[in-house]
Each structure stands twice: as C-alpha cells, then as structure tokens.
Write a structure and sequence with these properties.
Shape: globular
Largest sheet: 4 strands, antiparallel
Strand order of the largest sheet: 14-13-16-15
Helix content: 25-40%
Radius of gyration: 25 Å
Number of domains: 2
Bound molecules: zinc ion
Mean pLDDT: 92
Low-confidence stretches: 120-129
C-alpha cells in the first residue's frame, strides 16, 4: 500500500462513499468530503493529507500558494512532485516502511487496538467506541492511525517517546470551501517557513527519521529538525506485522487486506525545546532568562472556545506569551479581510488514558486578524461570568468564617458545566458574527445575554434551598456576591 499512488482517502460525495488517491484529490478528479466513523481518525486523516501535500509541494510565496488554492494541479505536476519520494510513503517497504522501523524486537505482538487512541485503555471504552473496534485495520486506516499516534496521542507509556508536540496538543486547521481547498490552506509557503524555522534552508533536504534514523540516546535540538522531517516524525519504534488476509476494516468498514498487530520497542533520545509545528500554537514563559515553550492542550472539561484567544491571537511580554500556529500567522497575510473557518481538535488525556476527544468547527467574523483584542474580550466575558457564578456558589457552600454559616452544599462544578452548555452556542455565534467596527455595542449585547443566563442559572440551582432556614443567610450572601460581580462586569464599571 503506497499512500502516493493507492486509493486510501475515504470520501463521501452526494451520498456515495469511496476511497480515492491523493492525485485524484489534488487534481480535482474526484470531489467529496472526508468520511470516517471516528471523528479523531477523520481529523488525523486530514492532518496526514496536509502533511503529505506540504512535503510534496512547497509554494515559494503567497502568490504561488494562491494559484494552488485556485486551480487543481495537473497529473504531470503531481507525478513530478512524487519523484524521489515514493519510498517515503510505502506502508510495506522492505527496508523503510512508512512511519515504521524494520526489525523491531518485541516479546510479543501488540494488538491493533493499541494504535487507536483511547480504545484499549479508556475507562469509558464501551461508551466512546463500539465493541470490537480496531481488531483489524486496512492499509489506509493503519497509516492514519500510525500518523495519529505519532502526532496527537500520548506515548505508549513509560520508556516510549511521545510526539514532538508533547502529549496531546491542540491542532488547528483552516477550513476551505472544499477538501482540496482546505488542504492547500494548511500548506505553508517557503516564505512562512523561513520565518518560523530560520533553519529551513540547511534542513530542507532532510529525510524522515524512519529513513534516516536517529541514534539511541541522541540529544537533538529542535532547530536541527527540518520541515519534512518534523511533519513525518515517528517518535517511537513500531513495525506492522504483515497483512495475512482480507477482512472488514474495524475503522472504515471496507473489505480489504488488513493488519492485525504490530511490534513496538522502547527507544530513547531527547529533543531539546519545542519544534514549531505548523498546526499548533506555542505558549512560552521566560524563567531566569530562559525561554520555555510548550503546546497548549485540552486539560480540563472547559469548552474549546475558552482556548480561542490562544489559538488566534498573538501576545507577548517580558515574561510570557503565545504565538499562534504558523498556518494562522500565514492566513493573516492573505485571508485577513475575510471571515475564517477553523477546524480545532485534540484529545484530553490523563497520562496514557484518553478521557475525551474533540473535533470542532469554529467561525471567526470578518476582521478577525486585526481585532485580536476584541476576540480576547469576548472570551474574557464568557469566562468572567462563569467566575462570577462560581464565586457566589462557593460562598453559598462555605459562608464566611465566624460570620455566616455555609450551606455545606457545593454547586460550583455542576453549575459550571451547565453554564458552559448554555453558553456554547452564544459564544460560537458571537465569535462568528461579531461586527468588529461596532464592537462595544456587540460586547454589551453579549454581556446582557451572559448575565441573563447566569441569573437564571443561579436562581434555578439554589431554588431547592430557599425554604431552608439554616441556609438563608448563606443564600443572601451568595446573592449579594453575584450582584456585586455582575455590576463590576458592566462596561461603566471598567476602567478606561
Ligand atoms: Zn479502514
């Protein structure tokens, strides 16, 4: 199975499902949208196609990229781009199989479900995934799973190295009007790469690390890793066991030759500092003059919009800051005037266990690129109203020492979860439709809506305790706190 020549990309078009080749997609011979039953695999599939397209083509500048976005390439151009790289993408290559190392020594083979995040270990296994998933994967799905494990998942556990982005980084992609357009919008130009990776010229001819292998115990600075090598980085030593027979793939369902297990082995090395991945924000802090960078991930149940400012707004002072993903930096230069649609996804994990997976679509209104401050304010409001109700409910639970007895009933977490549910659409819509030129009016309208939600949520959640004489003082205290916080959130209360 070769990812450059075989049909492995699962698409759906006008109700028809089929697998197509990368050439068919980029030459616009087949239209359709990606279609896999698991949303995380679908996202990883898109990431893999973008990485492959980036490796095959690197447009010089904005103008050259614009041409690719606008017009499908010809089969000749595709064939030329594949020259010399066919071996990089061969899943069964005798020496250098795609994202694998030949000759991995393992006491026993690992079943295929280990390669699919969250299936084998998740405590909520039966809840998240249908039974029997990932017993056998077809070539396309196994390639996607290898890429997903290398880029988006926690490592296989002690002694196994994880992705260049740390454990479970948030991935951000720009969505175009078609799959073909989406792919090109997430390809960086040489100009962009030279800015984010000043070491690009010296490293551009590097091979992936499953072709040009790293030495055990090597210490590798991130600045020694070129674009292609980083995009296809395989952090661990994996080797698929040859496919023996055909069966229905546990992921896509197609009847094809399937892989049932793989060998894995520990392999140690160190990558110093963070590699500037094209699809990731980096956040940094400066400690004792040293800049420490890392990639944000979903660490709590807070919804994705709470991360939005980190994902699209650059900020920096002497001590800390955030730098948006290179694809977003690049998009600012050519889609700044338009609204933008973003695909955002990632796992939330506890070490090797996946607790949750996300794959969401966000829109940002026209003017997003210049009005990061307003986007920040929208997010800040959403969070501030949440804090206001939490604070009030906390006082309801604990009271004030020696003055007011608390009720002993802590409603903070369940009410926070309900707050997030009730505000989800409002926050999405505010980001998608805000008129930046009249942002003060819009923010006021948002305030009013958030305030109404908070007041109703407070009343609802404390209603059962209103008749409890012992709790009346705590309730009054909480209500006063809420009103005070809400007042402070009114614009006139803000310092200019
Ligand atoms: Zn499959």
């Amino acid at each position: 199975m070769n990812l450059l020549t075989d049909a492995w990309i699962p698409i759906q078009h006008q109700g028809n499902y089929q697998k197509i080749t990368l050439k068919q997609l980029l030459c616009d011979e087949q239209k359709g949208e990606l279609c896999l039953p698991r949303d995380d695999m679908e996202l990883a599939c898109l990431q893999l196609i973008c990485a492959m397209t980036q490796v095959l083509f690197i447009p010089r500048d904005k103008k050259a990229l614009g041409q690719y976005v606008k017009e499908p390439i010809t089969p000749e151009v595709y064939a030329e781009a594949c020259e010399g790289k066919i071996d990089w993408f061969d899943l069964d290559h005798p020496e250098t199989p795609f994202m694998q190392i030949r000759g991995v020594k393992a006491a026993q083979p690992t079943p295929m479900d280990k390669l699919l995040a969250g299936v084998a270990d998740g405590t909520n296994k039966a809840f998240v995934n249908p039974q029997g998933l990932a017993e056998a994967l077809c070539g396309g799905c196994v390639a996607i799973a290898l890429f997903n494990a290398a880029n988006n998942c926690p490592s296989m556990g002690g002694g196994f190295k994880g992705s260049l982005r740390g454990s479970t980084a948030i991935t951000i992609l720009i969505k175009g009007r078609s799959l073909r357009e989406t792919i090109w919008l997430n390809v960086l130009t040489e100009e962009t790469v030279e800015t984010v990776m000043p070491w690009y010229p010296e490293t551009k001819d590097q091979l992936p690390n499953y072709l040009d292998k790293i030495k055990a115990e090597a210490k590798i600075p991130a600045s020694a890793i070129g674009l292609n090598r980083g995009l296809l980085w395989q952090p661990a030593h994996f080797e698929l066991l040859p496919s023996q027979s055909s069966a229905n793939c546990s992921c896509c369902g197609c009847y094809e030759p399937v892989y049932n297990s793989f060998n894995k082995a520990k392999f140690n090395y160190t990558v110093n500092s963070a590699w500037p991945h094209p699809l990731s924000t980096r956040i940094f802090t400066v400690k004792k003059g040293e800049r420490e960078e890392k990639f944000p991930s979903f660490t709590t149940t807070a919804p994705t919009w709470t991360h939005m400012s980190r994902l699209v707004v650059d900020k920096q002072n002497d001590k800390e800051g955030q730098q948006t993903a290179p694809v977003i930096q690049q998009a600012r230069t050519f889609t700044a005037a338009d609204k933008i649609q973003l695909i955002i996804g990632g796992y939330r994990n506890n070490q090797a266990t996946i607790l949750e997976r996300r794959h969401e679509l966000f829109s940002l209104a026209q003017g997003w690129a210049e009005h990061g401050d307003v986007i920040q304010q929208v997010i800040d409001r959403g969070l501030a109203y949440k804090t206001a109700i939490r604070k009030a409910l906390y006082l309801f639970a604990v009271g004030i020492k020696d003055k007011v007895n608390g009720s002993g009933i802590n409603l903070c977490n369940p009410v926070e979860a309900t707050y997030y549910q009730r505000t989800e659409n409002l926050m999405h819509n505010s980001l998608a439709a805000i008129k930046f030129e009249a942002s003060q009016d819009e923010l006021q309208a948002l305030n009013n809506q958030l305030k109404a939600i908070v007041v109703s949520l407070f009343n609802q959640s404390t209603e059962p305790y209103r008749q409890e004489p012992k709790m009346l003082k705590a309730l009054a205290l909480a209500r006063r706190s809420l009103h005070k916080s809400l007042k402070e959130l009114e614009p006139q209360g803000e310092t200019p």
